[in-house]
Design brief:
5 helices; 570 residues; disulfide bond; dopamine beta-monooxygenase activity; metal-binding; 7-stranded mixed sheet; mainly beta; monooxygenase
């Protein structure tokens, strides 16, 4: 552990040099760090164990410092702490907010100060709290998934604990983080110690982003001879400075049977695919806005360059340009790290969720509309064959602008197990591949549901599934080992409870009156009564695609999360 902490501290030191805040060195090694603001004036370090989390903030001010969490990224309702240093004495209190007003001191103090000082950079506060304080009224539980961190600071100190001065609009903000991610320094350390690694970049070289709201640009890459089989152990986004808000997501597909002449050829993915370019649906890398570098676990790598590995890749980049800005040049892409120091297991990626098409319908005027899509046990059984199990070790869950929560549910023998992943505070601007705390076994007979909760209350027309940012998606990309043939396990409703004639279905739904709650509830009921078509696909499956159609049955036993053992029961 000491060696890992030294590496972590060295990593932070290098980051400090690169960002120009060399004077900022934490009081002890931390596994995680980030700039919370956009100017490098508010820096956050943290680490955690099974029960507690420790934070340290370095803020460029000699006034008070605020830090906390809120479900929506606003300043209220929120769980916050405020501290400052005056005449060598550190003042620190646990607060909560309920309105656009000064925070209220908590009746029970659950955050504890460890250290406070002022230095050449500004104010330093180090503090700790339990992940679960059992105070559901004034505190927020720190759990897996997206957490919206809020921050504030002022140039002056308060005179008392209950006389905080308004920080103003320029000294406050929010940033979405996955505080309990297990992409730990262990992985960073292992990758940095390999001397036999080589890098390969998939880049959009000098691509002029069109002045349209949504662009899907594809570019082909024929990987040169890299000297035989390697394991991919690291995936890093390379985003052109200034384009961070426009590069929405990047997918890298690996393709069989592609003519090398398509190397470096670019085209609009869904509008102008070159003649002779075969279909390619094998996603091996998925990155989305807000995501960071992903490190494979020590025991897992992704095979590249082996005799049976395809050597042609297509990178799809989704550009989001809502104001239709022109003249932007992009060189963004993905950098992969490869090694001949093979890991024990070889990984693969599979995709669960809703088919990306118009039958994914989200009614308007709904504050929390729940969409469900399925991966059928028949698909799992077919692709596992005689293999006992595969193990999922990482996941990226994905939706668009209306998405508010995503959960990937897991079922076995009629009973629901704990979810693969749940993100009750999904943030469109913060999507990343996350290592699971514990690997999840997938066995014959297992099935899955991907649930997306949407807020369509601001729209007056139905939102459909599709590729535009204003369309919707509901997908989970899962990394697992050992690899089997499965690539996609998707579903779509047939709406056969409304009409058995698919040609008449859309004209009927396109003119549907969504304005009344009665009509929207009727649509939900008809959706429940409809059969579901399931798609099971893999490029080495025989046949490559299987289709099943049947009515989904609810599980006999639904998963109930255990209560925190440290909290009073009742």
């Amino acid at each position: 552990m000491a060696g890992q902490q030294i590496i972590a501290l060295t990593t932070l030191y290098c980051l400090a040099v690169a960002r120009g805040f060399l004077e900022v060195i934490p009081t002890e090694p931390f596994n995680y760090s980030t700039e919370v603001d956009t100017n490098g004036d508010y820096l956050l370090f943290w680490k955690f164990n099974d029960t507690h989390i420790t934070f340290e903030v370095h803020v460029k001010t000699y006034g008070y410092v605020g830090f906390g969490f809120s479900d929506n990224g606003n300043m209220y309702p929120a769980d916050v702490v405020v501290g400052w240093v005056k005449d060598g004495v550190t003042h620190f209190k646990d607060y909560h907010t309920t309105a656009h007003a000064p925070p209220v001191i908590d009746s029970h103090q659950d955050w504890f100060l460890l250290h406070g000082e002022e230095n050449d950079f500004g104010t330093v506060l180090k503090f700790v709290r339990k992940l679960e304080t059992c105070d559901k009224t004034e505190d927020k539980t720190i759990e897996d998934g997206t957490i919206r961190v809020i921050y504030s600071y002022h140039t002056s100190d308060p005179t008392t604990d209950d006389s905080l001065i308004y920080h103003g609009p320029e000294r406050r903000g929010t940033k979405s983080l996955s505080l309990l991610s297990v992409s730990s320094v262990t992985s960073v350390a292992s990758s940095s110690q390999h001397h036999d690694v080589r890098l390969y970049d998939f880049l959009n070289e000098n691509y002029i982003i069109p002045s349209t709201t949504t662009t899907y640009n594809c570019r082909g890459f024929r990987m040169p001879n890299i000297g035989g089989k390697h394991h991919m152990i690291k995936v890093e986004p390379i985003i052109t400075p200034g384009n961070e808000k426009h590069v929405h997501h990047i997918l890298v597909y690996r393709c069989r049977g592609i003519d090398p002449k398509f190397d470096k050829v670019r085209y609009m993915c869904y509008d102008e695919k070159p003649e002779g370019l075969n279909p390619c649906e094998d996603v091996i890398i998925a990155w989305a806005i807000g995501g960071n570098t992903f490190y494979y676990p020590e025991h897992v790598g992704f095979s590249v360059g082996a005799p049976d590995d395809p050597d042609f890749y297509i990178m799809q980049t989704h550009y989001d340009n809502p104001i239709q800005k022109s003249g932007m040049i992009d060189n963004s892409g993905i950098r992969i790290t490869l090694t001949k120091n093979y890991r024990r297991y070889e990984a693969e990626m599979m995709q669960f969720g809703h088919g990306v098409e118009w039958r994914h319908i989200i009614p308007p005027f709904e504050k929390a509309y729940l969409s469900q899509s399925y991966c059928a046990s028949q698909c799992i059984d077919h692709t596992l064959g005689n293999m006992e199990e595969i193990k999922v070790f990482a996941i990226m869950q994905h939706s668009h602008l209306l998405g508010r929560a995503i959960k990937t549910r897991h079922f076995r023998n009629g009973s629901e197990l704990s979810p693969v992943a749940t993100d009750p505070h999904y943030d469109f601007d913060f999507q990343e591949t996350r290592l699971l705390r514990e690997e999840i076994a997938v066995r014959r007979g297992d099935s899955f549901i991907v649930e997306c909760t949407y807020d369509s209350s601001g729209r007056s027309a139905a939102t459909l599934g599709g590729i535009s940012t204003r369309d919707e998606m509901c997908l989970s990309f899962l990394l697992y080992y050992p690899k089997v043939a499965l690539k996609q396990c998707l579903s779509s409703p047939t709406y056969d409870s409304i009409s058995n004639n698919q040609n008449r279905l859309w004209p009927m739904l396109s003119t549907y009156n969504w304005t009344t709650q009665h009509n929207r509830d009727l649509f939900k009921q008809k959706l429940k009564e409809s059969s579901i078509v399931h798609f099971c696909q893999g490029d080495t499956m025989v046949p490559k695609t299987l289709i099943y159609t049947f009515h989904e049955k609810p599980p006999m036993h639904v998963y109930v999360p255990p209560k925190a053992s440290s909290c009073p029961q009742g």
